[in-house]
Design a protein that fits this description.
Largest sheet: 3 strands, antiparallel
Strand content: 5-15%
Shape: globular
Helix content: 55-70%
Low-confidence stretches: 1-49, 380-384
Strand order of the largest sheet: 4-3-8
Number of strands: 8
Mean pLDDT: 77
């Protein structure tokens, strides 16, 4: 027999609504077997609802935890009870400036649950944004009407998870390319080992990106930066796809720093013709020069902003979608939904591997274009 959803909901509501009536009809403290069964079913439903809500909150926290930076490096956690979970990883140094320097281990925070006392001041990590705030001895946060924490924040120089991975990638690149340079000297300009894989990429960046966009006369002084920025972004993107849970290029501060470096190099290495074409363009009527000069100057500022947002938005969006699909595997918990989510996550992971390389290529290509426009030697015969 098949019951419609509306009929089932009506019966369930009627049963729930009849509970108070049955209680009033009986003597105090006496409940019939049917009423007890109904009461038990309602309480079970509430418990299931609370578990679902809790699971949904856990999934959102899982995605958010992957995107945010942290003051410790936790690889994974195990244990059913959240209050007694065991975390596998290692702590990182906390370095704060608050009327003096405060240095201690992040393990004192106990994964954000404890308040740390240092030289008479109390600090605690806020779970919502992962930042360290100055609190009282009870670790209480003060919030405004919009729910934002208003506690004082010390200047944080801590070695966070993202900073650690940046140092690791920097050390890896240094060792890799120093070894590649030594192998060139020892083997008569022939790469050995891992250099055989990276040599074609380096030649591609030189022959297909640097020389066509900058020119053979000036490309050499920019090659070190172009190679560094390409491999730096590529390696960081690839580490972001590992189970280590790092999302460095999805951090706006990191992408903005890379874009600002590109802007500073463009600005301080630009020739006079570059600035002349911005403030006093040849071959343009004088009244139009006053109109176009502010627009051209604004364009130089928009360039690093576009570099920042392009890399940040693409990598952040990929991580959000990928983590959401992984979380859906646990939400569906069915023979059809979970494998489907797994397959979608697997295909997206393969696509993210391509995107990781593509974003490094695009950033390097645009940087080369900016360097080329700054170092270009213009000829003004056509202006006469």
């Amino acid at each position: 027999m098949v019951f419609s959803n509306k009929l089932f909901q009506f019966i369930l509501i009627a049963l729930v609504a009849s509970i108070p009536l049955g209680c009033f009809a009986n003597n105090a403290g006496i409940v019939t077997a049917q009423e007890a069964q109904n009461t038990e079913s309602v309480s079970t439903e509430n418990k299931l609802l609370s578990k679902e809500e809790k699971a949904e909150a856990d999934r959102k926290a899982f995605v958010k935890h992957h995107l945010l930076d942290s003051h410790d490096f936790t690889l994974f956690s195990y244990g059913k009870d959240e209050e007694h979970q065991s975390h596998f990883g290692f702590s990182l140094p906390i370095i704060l400036w608050d009327n003096g320097i405060h240095v201690f281990s992040s393990s004192k925070f106990e994964h954000g649950e404890a308040v740390v006392e240092s030289n008479g001041n109390f600090y605690k990590i806020n779970h919502h944004d992962g930042r360290i705030y100055k609190t009282n001895s009870n670790g209480e946060f003060q919030e405004n009407e919009k729910g934002h924490v208003t506690n004082d924040m010390p200047i944080d120089f801590s070695i966070t998870k993202s900073v650690l991975m940046i140092l690791v990638v920097g050390a890896l690149m240094f060792l890799l390319f120093v070894g590649l340079g030594k192998s060139y000297k020892k083997n008569g300009s022939i790469a050995k080992g891992a250099g055989r894989f990276f040599e074609p990429i380096i030649l591609y960046i030189r022959d297909e990106i640097a020389i066509p966009n900058i020119g053979e006369k000036h490309y050499k002084k920019y090659m070190s930066f172009l190679l560094t920025i390409f491999f730096f972004i590529w390696f960081l993107n690839m580490f972001g796809l590992t189970p280590l849970g790092v999302n460095i290029t999805g951090n706006l501060a990191v992408t903005a720093s890379l874009a600002i470096l590109t802007y500073l190099i463009t600005t301080f290495t630009a020739k006079k013709d570059y600035w002349k074409h911005i403030f006093w363009m040849p071959g343009v009527p004088v009244p139009m020069k006053f109109v176009l000069a502010p627009i051209e100057l604004l364009g130089t500022i928009i360039k690093p902003f576009s570099l920042t947002i392009r890399l940040y938005a693409n990598m952040l969006a990929g991580h959000v979608v990928l983590m959401t699909l992984i979380a859906l595997m646990y939400k569906f918990n069915s023979p059809i939904g979970s494998p489907l989510s797994f397959m979608l996550a697997f295909v997206l992971s393969l696509l993210e591997v391509l995107v990781a390389l593509l974003q490094a290529y695009i950033f390097t290509m645009l940087a080369a274009l900016y360097f080329g426009s700054a170092s270009e030697e213009h000829h003004h015969e056509e202006a006469h």
